[in-house]
Amino acid sequence: MVVSAISDEEDHWIKIAGVGTKLSELLFGSGRMFSVWQRILLYSNGWSLGLFPMPGGMTVVELPEGKNIPEAVKELQDVSQALMGVAK
Predict the structure, then answer these.
(1) Partner of 77 at 20 to 30 A CA spacing, among 4, 12, 38, 61?
(2) DSSP bridge partners of 54
(3) Is the pLDDT of residue 36 over 60?
(4) In this structure, are residues 37 and 24 in contact, taking their beta carbons and an 8 Å threshold?
């Protein structure tokens, strides 16, 4: 599942899903399993992306531009709590 606060265009969702897929491939390549982590936050100038494991796949959340790291972390915690009941 992909949730984007930047764009609701299908092409954009596909790009974001691709980033999430590549990141999960890196995790599997390093020997990490989805059961060992609750969430990952990628933050760069102008965008924030959260990745959450869930049964059968993952959820990728793209946050609005202009978030600083503490705001992004809080928003990702709120999203994960709402979507999957993941503890903060």
Answers:
(1) 12
(2) 57
(3) no
(4) no
Order of strands, sheet of 57-63, starting from the edge strand that comes earlier in the sequence: 2-4, 57-63, 47-54, 40-44
* Tally of domains in the chain: 1
Q: Hey, what's the torsion of the CAs at 13, 72, 51, 14, to 10 degrees?
A: 10
11: containing domain: 2-84
DSSP character for 6?
S
77/36: higher pLDDT: 77
The mean pLDDT of 64-77, rounded to a whole number, is 70
Structure tokens at 23: 């990141």
Q: What pLDDT is stored for residue 20 in this prediction?
A: 75
Residue 60 forms beta bridges with which residues?
2, 51
Strand partners, 40: 51
